[in-house]
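Justification of computing resources. Each target in the renewal requires a structure prediction run like the one illustrated here; the chain below, 100 residues long, is used simply to show the kind of job we budget for.
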Amino acid sequence: MPRILLSKAQPGQVLTRPVTTSAGVVMVQAGSPLTPALIERLTNFGVDTVVVGDDAAQAAGDTRPMEERVREVEARFLGHDQDDWMMTLKQIVIAQLARD
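Resulting structure tokens:
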């Protein structure tokens, strides 16, 4: 996942990291394909570099099956069954995995 100069970016490349402002506000999400209009817009906002990959699967990061990812989350929360806050957090994390 190379960081490249925006001036070298090509339409069709996919962002593997979000593009953020200096304050950390996300301008463009990871997984977004670059288009000529998006490249121009980022240039106008003063963005110099982006991190790109070849396709959306790579941009998504974790490409393991959902079941495996859920098992990992469940393992991380073992021993916290009596903690309502931790169980709520676990459900939020699993819900987010389902959306990704």
